[in-house]
Design goal:
Layout: E1 12-15, H1 21-32, E2 36-41, H2 44-56, E3 61-65, H3 71-85, E4 88-93, H4 109-130, E5 134-143, H5 156-176, E6 180-187, H6 196-199, H7 202-210, H8 220-231, E7 242-245
Parallel strand pairs: 1-2, 1-4, 2-3, 4-5, 5-6, 6-7
């Protein structure tokens, strides 16, 4: 991690749901490469802990409480970022929920609404607020999932919302060109708190590992590396694309 460049020197990046797991690793990576990073999540104590950890690594960081489905908190996230740093160069939309393991046709309407609201709609509304402040050469990265390619029965509707992000990436890449690039990362299985109900079972974990070519689960650093690449000028001729980061696990649409 220490042998990295400074691709984000002088840049400002917002990462949603970034106080733990994949989101935190992405914020950390951007910060270690020179970005001023804005971290957020629903709980103040989580935000405070993340800010403390990042500052300890010499990263310039602002922490803001933000539940992405709350319009006022989304606006506050953008307003505080612009007030402190004056611009936005990178937005990583990472927030997601998976409130149910029910089959799609057995899912309650309230569950369907929450999945759509947090996993898809909030990303669009956040960008509506942020768009006026995005710089020329800016970058947006959505965090989807390999489950978006073939939604598994245990998380089918979650997978469908992640499929929607693949289409949203294509549509917004066209709409926001040429000044802003829009790409997507589709992680495989990563043992985080969010995925704990899948990866904590040893038999399930082993089956997932055996379904990858690299015989291991992903790490949060793997996802941060891929996201940082797409957000950086190293990917300046890439837009509208999804990078699957899943150790060779089969993906198809």
């Amino acid at each position: 991690m220490e042998k990295i460049g400074r691709r984000f020197e002088g840049k400002v990046g917002i990462v949603t749901a970034s106080t733990q797991g994949i989101g935190f690793s992405i914020a950390e990576r951007l910060g270690l490469e020179g970005a001023s990073v804005v971290v957020s999540s629903r709980k103040q104590n989580n935000v405070d802990e993340a800010v403390e950890k990042l500052k300890a690594r010499g990263i310039e960081v602002l922490g803001v409480v933000c539940h992405v489905s709350n319009a006022q908190q989304r606006k506050n996230l953008i307003d505080k970022t612009v007030k402190k740093y004056g611009k936005i160069d990178v937005i990583v939309s990472n927030a997601a929920v998976n409130p149910s393991v029910s089959a799609i046709l057995e899912s309650k309407e309230s569950v369907l609404d929450k999945l759509w609201e947090v996993n898809v709609k909030a990303s669009i509304l956040l960008l509506q607020d942020a768009a006026p402040h995005l710089q020329k050469g800016s970058s947006v990265v959505f965090i989807s999932s390999i489950s978006g390619y073939q939604p598994p029965a245990s998380m089918a509707m979650y997978g469908v919302t992640k499929t929607a992000l693949l289409g949203l990436t294509k549509a917004l890449a066209a709409e926001m060109a040429p000044d802003t690039r829009v790409n997507c990362v589709a992680p495989g299985f990563v043992p985080t708190h969010f995925a704990d109900y899948i990866t904590k079972d040893q038999a399930t974990r082993k089956a997932i590992e055996e379904n990858t070519l690299l015989n291991r689960l992903g790490t949060t650093a793997d996802m941060a590396n891929a996201t940082a690449f797409l957000a950086s000028d190293d990917a300046s001729y890439i837009t509208g694309e999804t990078l699957v980061v899943a150790g060779g696990m089969p993906s198809r649409l």
